[in-house]
Design a protein that fits this description.
199 residues, mainly beta
């Protein structure tokens, strides 16, 4: 450029193979590894990079304070995960990548006791599972014994480490046993993960 004094060099790699680089027949700016892409363009070009859904495939009886640790399966009914997918072991879920994640959990079931609140709580660990803290909670009212409830929770989590962040669901009730319904062909009790963007 006439107004600049810098020298720009295009360097070929040390290769014994012929390569062809084809320039597009359009106007624009060549991006490099340090280029910034406008958010508006990034969203339309990349979109959601991770989405996954897990559910209970059979009924699970729990008392308050017990975690939902068995019966989990990835949704396989007209569904396929986007990206790597969330990992699950004995009801403990781990994230495949850092980022801002939307987590939606729902439970459906019945209680053996009347006149109590039943629901679930979503617990999050950010220290590799050493400690878990409540991130979201909700309840429904069990007016009569074996009456049904459904609770849906959602929260947004800034996952800064794939090795430290873990998630699980806990039974929450005043007393008695809560039986969470499960199904192998539809979402009755389960959890949905969607990565919204970078952390």
């Amino acid at each position: 450029n006439a107004s600049g004094t810098g020298t720009f060099t295009i360097a070929a790699p040390n290769s014994n193979t012929d390569r062809t680089l084809t320039l597009p027949d359009e106007a624009g700016t060549v991006l490099t590894s340090v280029s910034s892409i406008p958010v508006a363009n990034l969203d339309s070009a990349v979109g959601i990079t991770e989405a996954d859904q897990w559910r209970l495939n059979t009924g699970l009886a729990r008392t308050s304070g017990q975690f939902l640790n068995t019966g989990w399966e990835r949704n396989d009914s007209n569904f396929d995960k986007i990206g790597t997918g969330v990992s699950q072991n004995l009801g403990v879920f781990t994230f495949p990548s850092t980022g801002i994640w939307l987590v939606i959990s729902q439970t459906t079931g019945g209680s053996s006791a009347a006149g109590q609140f039943v629901g679930h709580r979503l617990f999050l660990s950010d220290d590799g599972g050493t400690s878990f803290n409540v991130r979201a909670s909700g309840w429904g009212n069990s007016y009569t014994s074996n009456s049904y409830h459904q609770v849906v929770l959602n929260t947004i989590i800034d996952v800064t480490s794939t090795s430290n962040f873990q998630l699980k669901l806990e039974c929450s009730a005043n007393s008695g046993t809560v039986t969470y319904d499960g199904n192998t062909t539809q979402m009755v009790t389960g959890i949905t993960f969607i990565r919204l963007g970078d952390t």
